[in-house]
Amino acid sequence: MRFSAKRKAVKEFYLTTAIDYANGSPHIGHAYEKILADAIVRSRRLEGIQCHFLTGLDEHGQKVQETAERQGKRPQQLCDEVADLFRKMCADLHISYDDYVRTTQQRHKTVVRNILSKLHERGEIYRSEYKGLYSVRAERFVQEKDRINGEWSEDFGEIIELCESNYFFRLSKYQDWLVEFLRRNENFIFPQFRQKQVQEFLREPLNDLCISRPKSRLHWGIELPFDEHYVTYVWFDALINYVSAIGYGTENFAQLWPADVEVIGKDILAPAHAIYWPIMLHALDLEPPKQLLVHGWWLARGGEKMSKSLGNVVHPLDYAKIYGADAFRYFVLREMVVGQDSNFTHELFVSRYNSDLANDLGNLLSRVGRMVERYCGGRFPEMAMIDSEELALRQLAEKTIRETRSHCTGYAFSLALESIFHLVKTANGYLERRAPWKFAKERGANARRLLETSLAASGEVLRIVAALLSPVMPNISEKILTQLGAEPITQWENLRFSNMLVGRKLGNLEILFPKVEEEKNALSAVST
Ligand code: MSP
Fold this sequence. Notes:
Helix 15 runs parallel beside helix 18. This protein has 20 helices and 16 strands. The chain has a domain at 357-518: Isoleucyl-tRNA Synthetase, Domain 1 (Orthogonal Bundle). The chain is elongated, with a radius of gyration of 27 Å. 49% of the residues lie in helices and 14% in strands. By secondary structure, the chain is an alpha/beta fold. The relative contact order is 0.11. Residues 18-21, 29-30, 32-33, 58, 238-239, 241, 264-265, 267-268, 297-298, 306 line the site of 5'-O-[(L-methionyl)-sulphamoyl]adenosine.
């Protein structure tokens, strides 16, 4: 009893991701976001923090309705098929989510309707005639001011004139509140330059938000509780997933809300997440999430947008199948600085795979394993003497532990990986200089101690590297620890460079990053 009361006193770290549209198959953008979110959650868990990780699927709206029609399917059937694909992507990429929300689930629909009723009763939603320009692709009314250099952006697709009676949410009423909120919370949006962009956007007056769509035009949505002729605008519906999935209004909700971080891509920051969402919450007397973490976009070679029509979309699961899910996770987190865009090229992927994973890490592990087997009967010896070489290695290992922990807390996974791989390279250099294979041929206690110490010290580096890689490469991390015969590591707090492997028996030695023969690899044709 006392234990559970105590646990509840500590708020869990609640992380959400964007919920993917159910109108296509998973691509690198979806995969990256879930991997980034997963690495954040896994690193928090290693810090001893309890987490709740939510992701899911956005199933309503025009695009889904149209895709289903084109494929001759019922929308729900299409959504069920797409949900299987996206959940498989998560499983294949080792995404450790706690809950997967789908906006066609009853638990979600009930909350959307509750919220709509509440806002309607409070006078926050009103009905009005609206005549204006409508973007079919973005599924929203647009204004002249949305033109860039007099042109409509391609993202809007066809623009038509539309006149209809609709329901509106009083967004404009809260503009001053939002401006003040952003002024007081300068870290609400990460990276900060994105917050500045939103503040800039808010210099223009906001319009109220049209939150309904007549059923004559769109039937695939959640019916308004106060007018059966309309369904809810897909963004209003989708944003609510962050509160519906944790049981809006229940005790569980009170425990988890506000979310600690909502991970999204730059294209859906404004207006959806930075404007509609905080204002919707404020109108419901709820706090906004503590932070929006906005990542950049994966682009194709030459900085082009990836698109089906250009045939340059990267399919994450093909990479995961050939090179392993963890190698793919490593690449995207090493290559992309969170918040900025990156180009995905096959050559870059292969070059990182070969140099960092196969040569540096894979090589260190197999050398140490083979020598422990050969010279020490498969059990790790003791680090018997520490002189300047070992001291330097220990210092670097402990610095890497500190740096990795702090980089992970600050979402700087690329830097964390850079410092971990610097340690790997240094350990390879250390082994070269110590050259234990030479001592194996010499007689005498001193030679033996040097041989044992150098293998123990390199093994200890590998144990630390495995522990630090765990948020990014969870399976590889486990495999390295198993090969070393080391204890699993569930917390980073007591991670130190010490004699932890002494007496431990090696597990089965297997090659973790086999070289992939390029000629046999169909992928090189796909994405270059
Ligand atoms: N359904 C909406 C989100 C609703 S959240 C309440 C949506 N879905 S999406 O499938 O189009 O995009 C899902 C996420 O993937 C978004 O955060 C988006 O930014 C991200 N990405 C889509 N393509 C991307 C890249 N090429 N690169 C990186 N991420 C991108 O928007």
